[in-house]
Amino acid sequence: MLVCSQISQTIENTWNEYVHHTITQAQKQCKKWPWPLSWLCKIVTTIIEWVETIVHVVIQVVVTTVCHFYQALAAIVEALIRLVFELWLRFIGLIDFVAALALILPLKNLRLHVVILRLSDGSLTASEDDVNLAIKRTVEIYRDRARIKVVPTVHVMHDSSPAYALQVKSGVGFFLDQASDAGAYFRQVMYTELTGLLPAFWYRIGTPIVAFVTQGVGDDTAVGCSSGPLGDYICVEGTSMTYDATTLAHEMGHACGLLHDEIWRDRTNLMYSDEPRGTNLSSLQRAIVRGSTHVTYF
After folding, report:
1. How many Cα atoms sit within 13 Å of 258 on the Cβ side?
2. Do the Cβ atoms of 148 and 295 come closer than 8 Å?
3. Pair 100, 295: CB distance under 8 Å
């Protein structure tokens, strides 16, 4: 599945190669003809070149517009499907929700796939050692605070990722990114590069969380972003893996339905919006996380 920028570039390269070759051959042929035929031939090829440029621009605009519209529509439909399943499964899981509030916490599972992106120079957005340390901390947090066993898998991209995927937006911009080339690229990796996971994204039961380790997230203050239940992937800035091991766990909390702890402003809480933060979860937060579509008994 190609994103719109790749499709546009493919058309550009194919078109230019074909048209340039055709016009070049025509101009060579014109030179072989006697005057005034050579002169008339040159005028005709020039006019054709002008027309080709106009047609090329029109085709590029139409294809790009249609592609972006389809891309955005697909992202919106997928987000709505996720929301419907999230609400339905939380409704039928009310008993488990109440049990969690009552501290009845049988062990549940959450599958996490961490994807380390690669920069244009071939280097990684974070070292595998730093990522594994952050994962280890995340496993401890969810086991101790919510009785959830996080089952992690680390993937390292072999090819360089495009610039729009290496530097993502935060906040509202992250929602817009999901309907752009960045979102299409992440879904492409999830559906095609992470072998065997596609069915899980459509069953909506036990859906894994995919964490992309990017070069940057939002402005200077942001180090991670998530669209909550509306998306199956989160983004974490690579540098945060070295100085804040709670970022990954924090963004996973958003993916499981948690909001920032803006009421109590408890710095010991995992969902406190700024760093440094603690790892605590309230009884309500724990019940919400355990009721997520990402968390199951199998």
Report:
1. 30
2. yes
3. no
Contact 248, 135 (CB under 8 A): yes
Q: What are the pLDDT digits (tens) for 134-183?
A: 999 999 999 999 999 999 999 999 999 999 999 999 887 787 788 888 99
Q: Could you tell me the CATH number of the domain that includes residue 121?
A: 3.40.390.10
What angle separates helix 181-188 from helix 37-92, to the nearest 10 degrees? Answer: 70
* CA–CA dist 249, 252 (Å, integer): 5
Specify if 277 maps to a domain: yes
DSSP 8-state secondary structure symbol assigned to residue 281: -
Distance CA 284, CA 128 (A): 34
Strands 295-296 and 108-116, sheet pairing? antiparallel
Same domain, 142 and 10: no
pTM of the model: 0.84
> Is the link from the previous residue into 199 a cis peptide, with omega within 30 of 0?
no
286 and 204 in a common domain:
yes
Bin 152: left if φ > 0, else alpha if -120 < ψ < 50, else beta: beta
Cα 5 from Cα 188, distance rounded (Å): 14
User: What's the pLDDT tens digit per position in 15-24?
Assistant: 667 777 777 7
